[in-house]
């Protein structure tokens, strides 16, 4: 099938499909006319990629995991390398969440301090205008 049909069947635009191919996540043969030609398994592969992206995995992570993937959701076979890669990704997410929580706390503290010190000095601040600009 050509890229347009794969796009229609998966709901993924052609630009993203070409990106998946460039990242080594999706394979296509080339016809004599130069057009990409995908086999039927590409539909399942694209669905797997979309699910794994939704889980927060990078295309690099997904390239590593796809050989262990079965089914649309996908189910991942428990090979040791796979589990190690997923645990590593989970640790990175935990670290990011910790840093975000720290940033949020610091920002909330700055807001509280600014509100306490500026109540009598400055006119009310419309934060919606500041965020929009």
UniProtKB/TrEMBL annotation:
Domain HTH merR-type span(s) in chain numbering: 1-68
Keyword Transcription regulation in annotation: yes
CDD domains: HTH_MerR-like_sg3 (cd01282)
Domain of life per record: Bacteria
PROSITE patterns assigned: HTH_MERR_1 (PS00552), HTH_MERR_2 (PS50937)
Keyword set, alphabetical order: DNA-binding, Repressor, Transcription, Transcription regulation
GO MF terms held by the record: DNA binding; DNA-binding transcription factor activity
Stored InterPro entries: DNA-bd_dom_put_sf, MerR-type_HTH_dom, MerR_fam
Record's signal peptide: none
Classification via PANTHER family: MERR-FAMILY TRANSCRIPTIONAL REGULATOR, REDOX-CYCLING DRUG-SENSING TRANSCRIPTIONAL ACTIVATOR SOXR
Name of the protein in question: MerR family transcriptional regulator
Species assigned in the record: [Actinomadura] parvosata subsp. kistnae
